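Attaching the record inline, Q. Sequence:
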Amino acid sequence: MDSADLQKLVTRTMPFGKYEGRVIADLPGHYLNWFARSGFPPGETGRLLALMHEIDHNGLKPLLAPLRRPQR
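Structure, as predicted:
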């Protein structure tokens, strides 16, 4: 994980499925848990979903708030 991955969580949208178009950081915990049980997709999307699952599972979502603010 690097800082670029954290920025991607608040800017990249889900490319498929029930929550297509929603920012990855805004995906509900139950959906991330489903991926954790069923398997994350391959590639960068899967890696970002796994990272978001860890952040959500450990109650660290508030740490992403500063990244959502526009840079000046």
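Residues 3-68 form one domain. The longest helix spans residues 43-57.

More tomorrow.
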